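To: structure desk
From: M.T.
Subject: fold request, one chain
Message: Could you run this one when you get a chance? Sequence is below, nothing fancy, just the single chain.
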Amino acid sequence: MRFVAARDTLLLNQCDPADHLNVLISGQLRLFIPLANGTERIITLQSPGEGYGEASLLTGSP
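Reply: Done. Structure tokens follow.
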């Protein structure tokens, strides 16, 4: 299944379990944690060809 998202679209929430593997085809994806002061702590920047959600998919946990 292909999904196209506009810039600054929230794809997954921190507590959402992944039910499938996601692979970024084009663009850039930010994995971040929102902080109490309104800023973000960026965990990683994903580039095309990289997947995300593997750990949640394998463990069945968010």
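Reply (cont.): The mean pLDDT is 84. Let me know if you need anything else for the meeting.
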